Fold these 2 entries.
Entry 1:
Amino acid sequence: MPEYVASIGMEVHAELLTHSKMFCRCPVAFGGEPNTRACPVCLGLPGSLPVPNHHAIELVLKTAVALNCTVAMRSVFHRKNYFYPDLPKGYQISQYGETNPLGYGGYLDIPRGKNGTKRVRIRRVHLEEDTGKLMHLPAGGSGVDYNRAGVPLMEIVTDFPPDIESAEEAKDYLSTLRNILLYLRVCDGKMEEGSLRCEPNISVRPKGTETLGTKTELKNLNSFHSVHLGVEFELRRQIAVLQEGGAVLQETRGWNEQREISFVMRRKETENDYRYFPDPDLVPMVFEEREIEDLRTGLPELPMAKAGRYQKEFSLSEYDAGVLVSDFERAQFFEEAVKLGGEPKQVCNVMTNQFAELLKESGDTPRTSNVTPTHMVDLLELVSSGAISSKMGKEVLQETFDSGTSPSNVVKAKGLSQITDTGEIQVKVSQILAAHPEVVAKYKEGQANVKGYLVGQVIRATGGKANPTLVQDLVQEALDK
Ligand code: ZN
Ligand code: MN
């Protein structure tokens, strides 16, 4: 049985974070009453003229530069003609051609295991407009909502032949790309709201052969998990078809999230002919070297650079730095806590362990959770000053996470405090030693390991509140007397 190689191309659409639409002044937002954010321009009424949104152009240029693309110093908008009700004009304003998109010929390095990266080449980063949404009406029939029509949309497409060879790589490409878009603040990255959409095209071929297999395109993937599962399913399905002697058909397939299977949406007989031509209503975009250079130098610190800085500045391990920067909000939270006086290694430690687990369980993000950077610093100070033990610290963080009460107030309310009074512990030590003469005898005979038992008993006798180091010292002292 031959083994198979996968080839996965990624087409990503990202709605840009602008206040208004691409060619009119209608506001950009999510949801809302249908057709309340539409005007003659985005409804394509005769006589209306488009005026480009310069902020949107700048956001795409930023992305192109961050993705190591060549910037087209002269770039035009084309009309992509097709007839479908989601586009009232009868065409989508987009960008055609190999060297015409605002950015082309770039790459993105994605993390691959320990210290490794894989380079995924990017063919194009272009600017277009989003379409309206067809909706099934509760009373039957369909309606169109044009609130989304004309929203600035960036398309990012990987190069051909594809560099991505597994579902895992596809998912990692998408999360690395999304993270960069969040760092650049060009897109909110909300896959569940459709502001970031990914349509992989997938093919397999027997190992050792050159020609790529027939590809299918997958739609309706609205989470990273779906991208991973969907690509994996499609690879397995295609291999099964080939192994049974069948042929993979070129088709667009949808992902059914509930049943975790893909299904045929439409079959392509021939490639669509969109009859692209330059939009006569829009003048070409022309840039100067100077502008692009300013954009390049003005880019915010991106994840890889940030990780390098964390290692140097805060002596974090490569692994820890990688975990912190792999999520924009996490990195922001970390930096804020450090700015507020948190010790970087301690902040990192709590963030990548208990806090990360709490977030994972609840589905919260650092920003939506009850815990603030100020809370984090408060908590770490309570532990490092010895006011509470690190075990109590865990209990306190849990409480702050659940209720939003600050760690200091949790400690007060619960009466949590570590006993650091030597005299008080001394009394307990004497009591415990007196109650266990046989254990003390064993110690005197040379069984040093029984000391741990006595330490445990003393801590238990104080309700877990005694400072463990102090107890150890005092038990040792008493035994050596
Ligand atoms: Zn409009
Ligand atoms: Mn597109």
Entry 2:
Amino acid sequence: MRLSEKMEKALNTQIKEEFESAYLYLSMAAYLKSKKFSGFAKWMEAQMQEELNHAMKLYSYVNERGGRVVLEELKKPQENWNSPQEIFEAAYKHECYISDKINELVHLARDEKDNATESFLQWFVNEQVEEEATTSEIADKLRFIGESKNGLLMLDNTLGQRGAE
Ligand code: OFO
């Protein structure tokens, strides 16, 4: 069964959301790099890469289901923040926004009686649980560290160990 027009359009919009996530995280990485937080920047670069993978996962799925991928316009991401804490709080908020979008897609798949898409989306549902948890944990640590330079350097160092999963 080919994707319904409505489902196809919604998945195309989600591809845009994933690219916008990648764009936002790359902008955050660039800001962090400019402030010499190379570990935080590396973590964000890896996060950017994950978002590209999400976009490509959707791209493959739409094609596999006989749909047509049509790319939408990307909005310019924010470029300045005040601190790593503000960045990770914004990243957490953004992940919650993406979770809402994924949930809307699941509901649409149900309305359209599209079991294959509903099942495909479960991977994203689980991924969002993980991404919300990770970003909120880092934001919490940064809140705890506050102005401590030692604490910031240590966390920068730890997060710099991350490779793209
Ligand atoms: Fe950060 O999440 Fe994509 O979906």
